[in-house]
Amino acid sequence: MTGELSAQPWIGIDEETERLYRVALAVHGPLEADTLAKAGAVSEEAACAAMRRLRELGFMTSYGVLAPYAALRVLHHRRVSERQAQLAELETAASMIDDLSAGFVSAAPEVIAVQGIELVVGVEEVGRRAGALIASARTELMVLNAPPYAQNALPPYDELPKGPPAAESETGLAVLRGVHVRNVMAPEGLDLPGRMPAVSELADLGMGVRIRADLPTKLMIADRTTAMLPPSGVADPLESALIIHDGLLANALVPLFEATWDTALPLAAVQGSSDVSTDPSGPPSAEERALLTLLASGLKDEAIARQLDVHVHTARRRITALLAKLGASTRFQAGVQAGRRGWLE
Fold this sequence. Notes:
This protein is α+β, with helices and mostly antiparallel strands. The chain contains 15 helices and 11 strands. The chain has helices at 15-26, 33-40, 44-57, 68-94, 97-105, 123-136, 165-168, 170-176, 195-205, 247-262, 267-272, 286-296, 301-308, 312-326, 331-340, and strands at residues 60-61, 64-65, 111-114, 117-121, 140-145, 180-185, 208-211, 219-222, 226-229, 240-244, 265-266.
C-alpha cells in the first residue's frame, strides 16, 4: 500500500503540500513561512498557502508541526464525524421525499420520465394511456378496478360499439387475442348501470373476474413489465397516473395483485348466492357459520345439501364461494383460515 498521503482521497492533501509537510517535519526550531520557503525551495507565498492548508487538515497548529500518526488519527475521526452527519441529514431527507414530490405533482408537466417512471396528467391522457396499456398486453393483464371507474378500462355496457359489446371493448379484444386477463372489482363497480351485463359477457369470453370490497388501489399490469397506478393514495386516478416500466417496481406490484386476487370472491359466487358476503374481511353470515360447521364435521356434499335442505349443486356452489372468501383451495385450509379469523368461536 502506498505511503503517499496525496494518494488517499479522504485526506485531501495535494502532492506539493505533502512535500512541504515532509520538509516541515525536518525543520528544527520555530517554523515560519520564510523558513519553510527557504527549506522547501519555494516562494514565501507558496509556503504560506501550504501552511494554511496543513492547519486546515490538522497537520500543523500554532505550536508547530504534528507527527503524522497523531495528525492522521485526528483527521480520520473528523472525516467519520462528517460522514455520519451527512448520513443523518440524508436519512432525514428520505422521510421528506414523499412530501416534496407530492408538491410537484400538481404543477408537473403532462409527462415526466424519470428512470422508467412516467407521470401522466389529464383525464384524456390517462384514458389514452390506459387503453394503450391494454392494447400492448401480449400474454397477461392484471387489473385492480377500484373506484372511481375510468371508462377506458371497462366501458359502460350501453356505450359499447354495436355488435358483441364485450368483444369490441379494449379488454374484450385483449381476451380474444389470447391475453390472460384477470380483473378484481369493488362491489360498487357492479352497481353501475349496465356494468354487470358487460362484466358477465367479458367473463363468458374468458376474463377472470373476482370481487373484493377493500381494494388497496387502482392498478393495471401488462405482461408483468409495465404497470399503471395512481401517483398517491389521495390523488384522483382519473386525473393523474404513474406508468412504471421499471422491473423492480413492477415486481413489487405483481405480488400485491396476486395477494388481492387470492382473497377476492369469484364473480359466479356473487351472482349465484346472496348468502355469501363480497367482503372477505367481513364477519361470516349465519349460513356460512352453518356451512363451516358441516364442513368441519367431515360430511360429504350430498349430506351437507340434505342438512341445508338445498340441492347438492347449490351446496357445492356455496362451498366454492366460502373457500374463495377464505382464500383457501381445500376444505382443510378453509378450516384453518376460519379459525384464524375467529369464525369458529
